[in-house]
Amino acid sequence: MSTHLLIIDPQNDFVSPDGALSVPGADGDMNRLAAMIDRLSEKIDAVHVTLDTHQKMDISHPLWWADAEGNPPPPFTAISAEQMQTGEWSTRDPDAQERTLAYLRSLEQAERYPHVVWPEHCLVGTSGHAVWAPLNEAIGRWETRHLRRATYVWKGLSPWTEHFSAVHAEVVDPADARTHQDDAWVETLRQADTVLVAGEALSHCVANTVRDLVTAWGGEAERIVLVEDLASSVPGFDSLGAAFTAELATAGMALAKSREVTL
């Protein structure tokens, strides 16, 4: 019986109380996760860590956008295709206007999330991109014990699309492999008997990653155990996290508290 641990975006900008996109309670989540890794280290066969990865110029950062007076939107502003069409919002780079409008239309057709402008976060080369230190140290201890390397999956590298899910971008660009599903990685996870899931944020990146894994597997949600006290939602989006948990539990995903996981 093999057990893989999938940790979604355990980065300082989400986990630290003073992070750029801090998720309340995430520091406690990741500290409990570090303790669980140490407790179950011998029984965890593989560790996978996804890393949200951006630069300043990104479709979900304020720098991309301007109102009629040239001002950027404040963080957490939702922008629709209709608002672009009416001129309420436009791209700061005129050459990006048409492609961005097409993106918003595609995103709205998918009906998963509205387009939200987030604070600049998880910028390459910044401390906000790094893994929360206590968790990073626990992963290092697991690597030392097993003489194995954790797998790191970078997501969000395309500036043209949100990339909540570690499986594929919200809107896949046929010309950009960075937005596509990594079939080999998805299959590696599918081969595990159990996939323990933790990370941030439950409402967005955890939810979409798990949904897309189950879709890619053609079902088999029963392979997944969501460790409930190791994931929290973005403030204001708690209902999305609750809806995801209920949806996947109905499909067969198990729910557990970290102290209950024994393997």
Ordered list of secondary-structure elements with their pairings:
Blueprint: E1 3-8, H1 12-15, H2 26-40, E2 46-52, E3 65-66, E4 77-79, H3 81-85, E5 90-91, H4 97-110, E6 115-117, H5 133-146, E7 151-155, H6 183-190, E8 194-199, H7 202-217, E9 224-227, H8 238-251, E10 254-256
Parallel strand pairs: 1-2, 1-8, 2-7, 8-9, 9-10
Antiparallel strand pairs: 3-5, 4-6
Short recap of the structure:
The protein has helices at residues 12-15, 26-40, 81-85, 97-110, 133-146, 183-190, 202-217, 238-251, and strands at 3-8, 46-52, 65-66, 77-79, 90-91, 115-117, 151-155, 194-199, 224-227, 254-256.
What does it look like?
Helices cover about 35% and strands about 15% of the residues. The chain has about 260 residues and is α/β, with parallel strands linked by helices. The protein folds into 2 domains: about 5-55 and about 120-260, Isochorismatase-like (Rossmann fold); about 60-115, no CATH class. Helix 2 runs parallel beside helix 5. The termini are close together. The model has no long low-confidence stretch (mean pLDDT about 95).
Observed structural traits:
263 residues, Rossmann fold, 2 domains, six-stranded parallel sheet, two-stranded antiparallel ribbon, 8 helices, 34% helix
